[in-house]
Fold this sequence. Notes:
Elements: E1 3-8, E2 17-19, H1 22-30, E3 35-38, H2 51-57, H3 59-69, E4 73-79, H4 86-91, E5 97-98, E6 103-118, E7 121-128, E8 131-135, E9 140-144, E10 151-157, E11 166-167, H5 172-175
Antiparallel strand pairs: 1-2, 1-7, 3-8, 4-10, 5-11, 6-7, 6-8, 6-9, 6-10
The structure holds ligand L3FJYLFB, fe (ii) ion and nickel (II) ion.
Site (Important to generate the dianion): 105
Cofactor: Ni(2+); Fe(2+)
Enzyme class: oxidoreductase
Amino acid sequence: MSRLRIFSDQNPDAPEFSSHDGDEIARELAKIGVHFERWQASQPVQAGATPEQVLAAYRADIDRISAERGFTTVDVISIAPDNPKKEELRAKFLDEHYHKEDEVRFFVDGSGLFTLHVGDKVYEIECVKDDLIAVPDGTTHWFDMGPEPRFVAIRFFEQPDGWIGHFTGTDIAQRFPRYDVPTKG
Ligand SMILES: CSCCC(=O)/C(O)=C/O
Ligand SMILES: [Fe+2]
Ligand code: NI
């Protein structure tokens, strides 16, 4: 289930805010310039669908958001718990980093945990199937797919190297919760 928790960056033990409500999550994130919305597929996406089938199911929303935000490319990333490189893939985005373009991801299936460090607050967002998140360029954040990663996501790019992370070298990500298991409602 989608969830937003907001912490002081000094206190990872006690969230100051927690919600599973999509409208409330969107409202809180809008205050820091992060966009959150939910999409419905225009046709069912079967397990094992090809990237082309996934993109076709969301074509209208993909075209809308690409036109609004200037994206030129989309791709589909798919990670399952039996991926032999799952530990390496998980480690890639676990430390605090930022990107030079907006990070826009749509979860077709499965889930993952984005955590953003903005001012003196930490915003932890569990993204699940049907969630779109748009994190502005330069926002420091990390992403945890968990020890048994399972997600299919559409990624949007302005430039071919837009996904590259620039690491800040801080240890803040190690002090905040990891994504051990998807949360229940
Ligand atoms: C959900 S897509 C994989 C993560 C990613 O691209 C990124 O930049 C995480 O911070
Ligand atoms: Fe990132
Ligand atoms: Ni709950």
